Amino acid sequence: MSFSSVPRKRRAAAVPAVLVFLVSFAAFDRLLLLGLRAWAGRYYAAGPGPSAGKTATVSAGEGDGEILIFGTSRSARAFDQETLAARLGKKIIKNAAAGRYPRYFDLYYLRYRRENRRPAAVVYGMDYFMFEKKTLPSELRILDPAFEAHALNPGDGVNDASPLLSRLSRLFRKKPEIDDFLGALLRLRTEEDEVTPPAADQGKGRDENPDHSPPLSSDPRKRRPFEPRRYQARPGAEGKDLAKLLTVLEKDGVPVVLVFIPDFIGTNETNFEQARFKEDVGALAGLHGNAAVLDFNRPDRFDLDNPDLFRDGGWGKSNSHLNFRGKAVFNRLFAEAVRPFLRSKTPGAI
Predict the structure, then answer these.
(1) Neighbouring C-beta atoms of residue 296, cutoff 10 Å
(2) Is the predicted pLDDT of residue 116 greater than 70, yes or no?
(3) Degrees, nearest 5: CA angle 265-270-271
(4) pLDDT in tens, 123-139
(5) Average pLDDT for residues 132-157, to the nearest whole number?
(6) Statement: residue 195 has pLDDT above 70
(7) Which secondary-structure segment (H or E) carries 292?
(8) N or C terminus of the chain: which is more exposed, having fewer CB within 10 Å?
Protein backbone atom coordinates (compact mmCIF):
# COMPACT_ATOMS: atom_id res chain seq x y z
CA MET A 1 0.00 0.00 0.00
CA SER A 2 1.48 3.34 -1.07
CA PHE A 3 1.65 6.37 1.17
CA SER A 4 -0.79 8.19 -1.14
CA SER A 5 -3.42 5.51 -0.54
CA VAL A 6 -3.31 5.96 3.25
CA PRO A 7 -6.34 7.91 4.47
CA ARG A 8 -5.65 11.61 4.89
CA LYS A 9 -6.49 11.56 8.61
CA ARG A 10 -3.95 8.79 9.27
CA ARG A 11 -1.30 10.68 7.32
CA ALA A 12 -2.03 13.84 9.23
CA ALA A 13 -1.74 11.96 12.53
CA ALA A 14 1.63 10.48 11.51
CA VAL A 15 3.20 13.89 10.87
CA PRO A 16 3.45 14.89 14.56
CA ALA A 17 4.93 11.49 15.44
CA VAL A 18 7.60 11.89 12.77
CA LEU A 19 8.38 15.40 13.96
CA VAL A 20 8.65 14.21 17.57
CA PHE A 21 11.01 11.44 16.49
CA LEU A 22 13.24 13.81 14.52
CA VAL A 23 13.39 16.36 17.32
CA SER A 24 14.08 13.64 19.89
CA PHE A 25 16.80 12.11 17.72
CA ALA A 26 18.49 15.49 17.20
CA ALA A 27 18.30 16.32 20.90
CA PHE A 28 19.63 12.91 21.97
CA ASP A 29 22.41 13.06 19.36
CA ARG A 30 23.60 16.48 20.50
CA LEU A 31 23.19 15.90 24.23
CA LEU A 32 25.10 12.62 24.14
CA LEU A 33 27.94 14.19 22.16
CA LEU A 34 27.96 17.12 24.57
CA GLY A 35 28.34 14.72 27.49
CA LEU A 36 31.06 12.73 25.74
CA ARG A 37 32.89 15.92 24.86
CA ALA A 38 32.87 17.12 28.47
CA TRP A 39 34.09 13.69 29.61
CA ALA A 40 36.87 13.65 27.01
CA GLY A 41 37.92 17.18 27.94
CA ARG A 42 38.28 16.24 31.61
CA TYR A 43 40.17 13.05 30.72
CA TYR A 44 42.68 14.78 28.42
CA ALA A 45 43.11 17.65 30.88
CA ALA A 46 44.00 15.23 33.67
CA GLY A 47 47.55 14.65 32.49
CA PRO A 48 49.89 13.42 29.77
CA GLY A 49 49.54 10.14 27.94
CA PRO A 50 50.51 6.69 29.14
CA SER A 51 53.81 6.80 27.30
CA ALA A 52 55.04 10.10 28.66
CA GLY A 53 56.18 8.95 32.06
CA LYS A 54 58.03 5.94 30.66
CA THR A 55 59.49 7.46 27.52
CA ALA A 56 60.23 11.10 28.10
CA THR A 57 62.53 12.64 25.52
CA VAL A 58 66.11 11.57 26.20
CA SER A 59 69.33 13.14 24.99
CA ALA A 60 73.08 12.58 25.02
CA GLY A 61 76.22 14.31 23.81
CA GLU A 62 77.23 17.91 23.26
CA GLY A 63 78.44 17.82 19.67
CA ASP A 64 78.21 20.23 16.78
CA GLY A 65 74.46 20.50 16.27
CA GLU A 66 71.53 18.31 17.26
CA ILE A 67 70.07 15.23 15.61
CA LEU A 68 66.40 14.53 16.37
CA ILE A 69 65.23 10.91 16.35
CA PHE A 70 61.52 10.20 15.89
CA GLY A 71 59.50 6.99 15.95
CA THR A 72 57.49 4.47 17.95
CA SER A 73 58.72 1.99 20.54
CA ARG A 74 60.71 0.25 17.78
CA SER A 75 62.81 3.39 17.37
CA ALA A 76 63.00 3.89 21.11
CA ARG A 77 64.61 0.47 21.47
CA ALA A 78 66.69 0.57 18.30
CA PHE A 79 68.51 3.91 18.56
CA ASP A 80 71.00 4.43 21.37
CA GLN A 81 71.55 8.15 21.92
CA GLU A 82 74.85 7.74 23.79
CA THR A 83 76.44 5.53 21.13
CA LEU A 84 75.30 7.77 18.28
CA ALA A 85 76.42 10.96 20.03
CA ALA A 86 79.91 9.51 20.45
CA ARG A 87 80.16 8.14 16.91
CA LEU A 88 78.58 11.07 15.05
CA GLY A 89 79.87 13.96 17.14
CA LYS A 90 76.39 15.44 17.55
CA LYS A 91 73.96 15.92 20.39
CA ILE A 92 71.24 13.28 20.03
CA ILE A 93 67.68 14.05 21.10
CA LYS A 94 65.43 10.97 20.93
CA ASN A 95 61.68 11.39 21.11
CA ALA A 96 60.19 7.96 20.43
CA ALA A 97 57.34 6.08 22.09
CA ALA A 98 54.41 3.79 21.45
CA GLY A 99 51.37 5.67 20.20
CA ARG A 100 53.32 8.47 18.52
CA TYR A 101 52.84 8.76 14.78
CA PRO A 102 53.43 11.47 12.12
CA ARG A 103 50.93 14.00 13.44
CA TYR A 104 52.66 14.00 16.81
CA PHE A 105 56.09 14.59 15.29
CA ASP A 106 54.83 17.29 12.93
CA LEU A 107 53.53 19.20 15.97
CA TYR A 108 56.64 18.39 17.99
CA TYR A 109 59.00 19.73 15.33
CA LEU A 110 57.03 22.97 14.98
CA ARG A 111 57.31 23.51 18.72
CA TYR A 112 60.98 22.54 18.70
CA ARG A 113 61.76 25.14 16.01
CA ARG A 114 60.08 27.87 18.01
CA GLU A 115 62.41 27.19 20.92
CA ASN A 116 65.64 26.01 19.24
CA ARG A 117 67.88 26.61 16.28
CA ARG A 118 67.62 24.41 13.20
CA PRO A 119 68.69 20.80 13.94
CA ALA A 120 71.60 19.19 12.13
CA ALA A 121 69.39 16.33 10.94
CA VAL A 122 66.21 14.35 11.63
CA VAL A 123 66.13 10.56 11.74
CA TYR A 124 62.70 8.91 11.55
CA GLY A 125 62.18 5.17 12.13
CA MET A 126 59.60 3.79 9.70
CA ASP A 127 56.97 1.22 10.76
CA TYR A 128 55.11 -1.17 8.46
CA PHE A 129 51.85 -0.28 10.26
CA MET A 130 52.48 3.47 10.55
CA PHE A 131 49.96 4.64 7.95
CA GLU A 132 47.05 2.72 9.45
CA LYS A 133 47.51 4.21 12.91
CA LYS A 134 46.65 7.50 14.58
CA THR A 135 48.51 9.23 17.36
CA LEU A 136 46.85 8.68 20.71
CA PRO A 137 44.92 11.83 21.72
CA SER A 138 46.59 11.63 25.13
CA GLU A 139 49.95 11.94 23.35
CA LEU A 140 48.83 14.97 21.35
CA ARG A 141 47.79 16.58 24.59
CA ILE A 142 51.46 16.59 25.64
CA LEU A 143 52.18 19.09 22.87
CA ASP A 144 48.98 21.10 23.18
CA PRO A 145 47.87 21.91 26.75
CA ALA A 146 44.58 23.19 25.32
CA PHE A 147 43.94 19.96 23.44
CA GLU A 148 40.97 19.10 25.64
CA ALA A 149 39.19 22.23 24.41
CA HIS A 150 39.18 20.75 20.90
CA ALA A 151 38.16 17.23 21.94
CA LEU A 152 35.21 15.91 19.94
CA ASN A 153 34.53 19.35 18.47
CA PRO A 154 31.59 18.79 16.06
CA GLY A 155 32.76 21.70 13.94
CA ASP A 156 35.99 19.93 12.96
CA GLY A 157 35.51 18.09 9.66
CA VAL A 158 33.26 15.19 8.72
CA ASN A 159 33.32 11.41 8.90
CA ASP A 160 34.69 10.33 5.53
CA ALA A 161 32.64 7.13 5.73
CA SER A 162 29.53 9.18 4.91
CA PRO A 163 29.51 12.98 4.61
CA LEU A 164 25.71 12.86 4.37
CA LEU A 165 25.25 11.03 7.67
CA SER A 166 27.80 13.41 9.18
CA ARG A 167 25.35 16.22 8.53
CA LEU A 168 22.48 14.34 10.14
CA SER A 169 24.29 13.01 13.21
CA ARG A 170 27.02 14.66 15.23
CA LEU A 171 27.74 11.35 16.92
CA PHE A 172 28.42 9.76 13.55
CA ARG A 173 30.49 12.77 12.48
CA LYS A 174 32.79 12.34 15.48
CA LYS A 175 32.75 8.52 15.57
CA PRO A 176 36.50 8.12 14.76
CA GLU A 177 37.43 10.51 17.58
CA ILE A 178 34.94 8.84 19.95
CA ASP A 179 36.55 5.48 19.18
CA ASP A 180 39.98 6.96 19.92
CA PHE A 181 38.78 8.40 23.21
CA LEU A 182 37.12 5.19 24.39
CA GLY A 183 40.19 3.21 23.36
CA ALA A 184 42.46 5.51 25.39
CA LEU A 185 40.02 5.49 28.29
CA LEU A 186 39.95 1.70 28.45
CA ARG A 187 43.69 1.47 27.73
CA LEU A 188 43.00 -0.76 24.74
CA ARG A 189 46.24 -1.86 23.05
CA THR A 190 45.60 -4.06 20.04
CA GLU A 191 49.08 -3.80 18.58
CA GLU A 192 52.35 -5.00 20.03
CA ASP A 193 53.96 -1.59 19.50
CA GLU A 194 51.67 -0.17 22.17
CA VAL A 195 52.86 -2.46 24.96
CA THR A 196 56.64 -2.41 24.78
CA PRO A 197 58.19 0.47 26.77
CA PRO A 198 61.84 1.15 25.92
CA ALA A 199 63.32 -0.06 29.18
CA ALA A 200 66.70 -0.18 27.44
CA ASP A 201 67.04 3.53 28.16
CA GLN A 202 66.63 2.81 31.86
CA GLY A 203 68.90 -0.23 32.10
CA LYS A 204 72.19 0.50 30.40
CA GLY A 205 74.39 -2.48 29.68
CA ARG A 206 71.60 -4.93 30.39
CA ASP A 207 70.34 -7.43 27.84
CA GLU A 208 66.62 -7.31 28.35
CA ASN A 209 65.14 -10.46 26.89
CA PRO A 210 62.75 -11.52 29.64
CA ASP A 211 59.50 -11.97 27.81
CA HIS A 212 60.16 -14.72 25.28
CA SER A 213 57.42 -17.25 25.77
CA PRO A 214 58.32 -19.42 23.97
CA PRO A 215 61.86 -18.25 23.12
CA LEU A 216 62.44 -16.74 19.72
CA SER A 217 63.57 -19.22 17.14
CA SER A 218 64.28 -19.09 13.41
CA ASP A 219 63.81 -22.86 13.13
CA PRO A 220 61.15 -23.40 10.39
CA ARG A 221 59.92 -26.46 12.27
CA LYS A 222 58.77 -24.23 15.13
CA ARG A 223 56.63 -22.00 12.97
CA ARG A 224 52.92 -22.13 13.58
CA PRO A 225 50.11 -21.16 11.18
CA PHE A 226 49.78 -17.39 11.20
CA GLU A 227 47.69 -14.68 9.64
CA PRO A 228 49.67 -12.33 7.36
CA ARG A 229 49.15 -8.60 7.69
CA ARG A 230 48.43 -6.43 4.70
CA TYR A 231 50.08 -3.06 4.28
CA GLN A 232 48.00 0.11 4.61
CA ALA A 233 49.31 2.45 1.92
CA ARG A 234 49.81 6.12 2.59
CA PRO A 235 48.35 8.55 3.21
CA GLY A 236 46.19 6.42 5.48
CA ALA A 237 45.47 7.97 8.87
CA GLU A 238 48.42 10.36 9.20
CA GLY A 239 50.44 10.06 6.00
CA LYS A 240 49.59 13.64 5.12
CA ASP A 241 51.16 14.75 8.39
CA LEU A 242 54.38 12.94 7.44
CA ALA A 243 54.39 14.68 4.06
CA LYS A 244 53.81 18.00 5.82
CA LEU A 245 56.69 17.34 8.20
CA LEU A 246 59.05 16.51 5.34
CA THR A 247 58.00 19.68 3.51
CA VAL A 248 58.73 21.83 6.56
CA LEU A 249 62.09 20.13 7.08
CA GLU A 250 63.01 20.69 3.42
CA LYS A 251 62.08 24.35 3.73
CA ASP A 252 64.32 24.57 6.80
CA GLY A 253 67.15 22.85 4.94
CA VAL A 254 67.31 19.96 7.45
CA PRO A 255 68.62 16.59 6.17
CA VAL A 256 66.17 13.74 6.86
CA VAL A 257 66.92 10.02 7.03
CA LEU A 258 63.95 7.65 6.86
CA VAL A 259 65.12 4.38 8.41
CA PHE A 260 63.79 0.85 8.02
CA ILE A 261 64.71 -0.75 11.34
CA PRO A 262 65.46 -4.50 11.36
CA ASP A 263 62.58 -6.86 12.07
CA PHE A 264 62.89 -10.52 12.96
CA ILE A 265 62.40 -12.86 9.98
CA GLY A 266 59.06 -14.14 11.26
CA THR A 267 57.71 -10.60 11.53
CA ASN A 268 58.92 -9.79 8.04
CA GLU A 269 57.10 -12.81 6.65
CA THR A 270 53.99 -11.76 8.54
CA ASN A 271 54.29 -8.27 7.05
CA PHE A 272 54.39 -9.78 3.59
CA GLU A 273 53.92 -6.56 1.61
CA GLN A 274 57.26 -5.08 2.58
CA ALA A 275 58.05 -4.22 -1.03
CA ARG A 276 54.96 -1.98 -1.28
CA PHE A 277 55.82 -0.34 2.04
CA LYS A 278 59.39 0.42 1.04
CA GLU A 279 58.34 1.63 -2.40
CA ASP A 280 55.81 3.97 -0.79
CA VAL A 281 58.36 5.48 1.58
CA GLY A 282 60.95 5.73 -1.18
CA ALA A 283 58.52 7.58 -3.43
CA LEU A 284 57.71 10.03 -0.63
CA ALA A 285 61.38 10.65 0.08
CA GLY A 286 61.98 11.21 -3.62
CA LEU A 287 59.70 14.24 -3.51
CA HIS A 288 62.07 16.03 -1.14
CA GLY A 289 65.62 16.96 -1.99
CA ASN A 290 66.72 16.75 1.65
CA ALA A 291 65.48 13.18 2.30
CA ALA A 292 67.28 9.85 2.14
CA VAL A 293 66.19 6.27 2.80
CA LEU A 294 68.32 3.89 4.84
CA ASP A 295 67.15 0.26 4.79
CA PHE A 296 68.48 -2.09 7.47
CA ASN A 297 65.53 -4.46 7.21
CA ARG A 298 67.46 -6.49 4.64
CA PRO A 299 69.37 -9.76 5.14
CA ASP A 300 72.45 -8.34 3.40
CA ARG A 301 72.65 -5.52 5.97
CA PHE A 302 71.46 -7.18 9.17
CA ASP A 303 71.17 -10.73 10.48
CA LEU A 304 67.36 -10.82 10.42
CA ASP A 305 67.05 -14.54 11.19
CA ASN A 306 69.26 -14.42 14.28
CA PRO A 307 66.94 -14.63 17.32
CA ASP A 308 69.79 -13.56 19.60
CA LEU A 309 69.45 -10.01 18.24
CA PHE A 310 65.72 -9.53 18.84
CA ARG A 311 63.62 -9.06 21.93
CA ASP A 312 60.35 -10.20 20.36
CA GLY A 313 58.59 -10.79 17.05
CA GLY A 314 57.87 -13.92 15.07
CA TRP A 315 55.39 -15.51 12.70
CA GLY A 316 51.98 -13.97 13.27
CA LYS A 317 53.49 -11.00 15.14
CA SER A 318 53.62 -7.89 13.00
CA ASN A 319 56.04 -6.02 15.21
CA SER A 320 59.43 -6.79 16.75
CA HIS A 321 62.06 -4.94 18.73
CA LEU A 322 65.81 -5.28 18.94
CA ASN A 323 67.28 -6.51 22.20
CA PHE A 324 70.44 -5.11 23.77
CA ARG A 325 72.79 -7.12 21.51
CA GLY A 326 70.85 -6.24 18.39
CA LYS A 327 70.75 -2.59 19.40
CA ALA A 328 74.55 -2.50 19.77
CA VAL A 329 75.04 -4.02 16.31
CA PHE A 330 72.45 -1.78 14.72
CA ASN A 331 73.87 1.47 16.11
CA ARG A 332 77.38 0.66 14.96
CA LEU A 333 76.18 -0.12 11.43
CA PHE A 334 73.78 2.82 11.36
CA ALA A 335 76.45 5.33 12.41
CA GLU A 336 78.82 4.05 9.72
CA ALA A 337 76.15 4.29 7.04
CA VAL A 338 74.68 7.67 7.96
CA ARG A 339 77.93 9.56 8.58
CA PRO A 340 78.71 10.18 4.86
CA PHE A 341 75.14 11.40 4.27
CA LEU A 342 75.35 13.89 7.10
CA ARG A 343 78.57 15.23 5.61
CA SER A 344 77.47 15.42 1.99
CA LYS A 345 73.68 15.76 2.53
CA THR A 346 73.16 13.85 -0.72
CA PRO A 347 69.55 12.65 -1.12
CA GLY A 348 68.49 9.17 -2.14
CA ALA A 349 69.07 5.71 -0.78
CA ILE A 350 72.13 5.29 1.42
Answers:
(1) 18
(2) yes
(3) 95
(4) 999 999 999 988 877 77
(5) 68
(6) no
(7) strand 291-295
(8) N
Instruction: Mark out the alpha helices in 272-323 (DSSP H runs).
Output: 274-286
pLDDT higher for 196 or 313?
Answer: 313
Is residue 212 predicted with pLDDT exceeding 80? no
* Cα–Cα distance for residue pair 159/188, rounded to 1 Å: 22
Is pTM beyond 0.90? Reply is: no
Does residue 262 sit in helix, strand or coil? coil
Question: Do the Cβ atoms of 146 and 41 come closer than 8 Å?
Answer: no
User: Using N-to-C axis directions, what is the helix angle for 102-115 and 239-252, rounded to 10°?
Assistant: 30
> What residues have CB less than 8 Å from 184, skipping those under 6 apart?
43, 49, 136, 137, 138
Kindly report the backbone phi and psi dihedral angles of residue 190, in degrees, each rounded to the nearest multiple of 5, phi listed first.
-95, -5
Q: Are 87 and 60 in contact (CB under 8 A)?
A: no
Side-chain half-sphere exposure of 338, counting CA atoms within 13 A: 31
Q: CB within 8 A of 1, min separation 6: which ones?
A: none
Give the model's pLDDT for residue 284.
96
How many Å apart are CA 316 and CA 319, to the nearest integer?
Answer: 9
Nearest-angstrom CA–CA distance, 125 and 338: 13
Most confident of 29-33, 64-68, 132-136: 64-68
Q: Which residues contact 207 (CB under 8 A, 6 or more apart)?
A: 323, 324, 325
Conformation bin of residue 163: beta by default, left when phi > 0, alpha when psi is -120 to 50: alpha
Helix (H) or strand (E) holding 24: helix 8-45
Interaxial angle between packed helices 324-344 and 81-88, expressed in degrees from 0 to 180 and rounded to the nearest 10: 30
pLDDT number for residue 42: 63
Q: Is the pLDDT of residue 94 over 90?
A: yes
Separation in Å, CA 232 to CA 70, 96, 237: 20, 21, 9
